Protein 1
Amino acid sequence: MKVVELMNKNVVTCHPSEKLNIILNKLELFKIAGMPVVDKGRLVGIISQSDILKGVKNGTIDDLTVADVMTVNVVTVPPTESVIVVAKLMVENHINRIPIVDNDKVVGIVTRGDIIKAVAECG
């Protein structure tokens, strides 16, 4: 199975300059735990709840921006990648979500939950 078959195409993203209190509202509103960070249409990072928790050790939620806490070395895959490869990347890199990128644009995202759901539906 290719990742394009199970990726979420309606990707919630944020900008590096957004304040963390806004990001917390987005996470709650969309019921997600992280999102890609995009600047001028290009992926520049990823932010998760754990990034935010680590960040507030060094500042307040009202003062910090996404750029202050985001992960910049993002693991990505193309839409044609195998779901097995994506699952292995998640385990090896201790991550819960991988942006799907095509021609430098975020076209989807896959989470561990998406993979578990796909496995459950197969069996």
Note: The first strand starts at residue 34 and ends at 39.
Protein 2
Amino acid sequence: MNNLTKKDIENLLPHREPMLLIDELINIKKLFSATAIVNVKKDSFFVQGHFPGQPVMPGVLIVEAFGQAAAALTAHGLDKETYENKLVYLMNVEKARFRNPVLPDCKLELYIEAVRSHGRVWKYKGEASVNNKKMADAVWSATIVDRK
């Protein structure tokens, strides 16, 4: 499967509405890269308070969406037994740059790439764009841990 729907993503990640930010994962290259789609809508939960009258998707949620996309890419590429009963935790964000505001009623595309993995620790990089205009980029690490 080269694309994942929101339902497929729900089967891989523990996130649920309203915190499941990614709507699709497309162009998947197993354990290497993918593009996540985030449909930023006028009724998205963060729009009402950030900022009323001039809403912007918070940068921290763009980073969260990067993390969710990376977790889905990794879980999708591993054997089910490897990720079953596991969680993926963000460990650090080395770099995050926000170049343009992400405004409602757009399709935010997150291109993510697994840079390397060492045991349960993975490093990723990503670039966010709207209509081929770069909005943000980041480098981060995450770890796979057992659920309690």
Note: The radius of gyration is 15 Å.
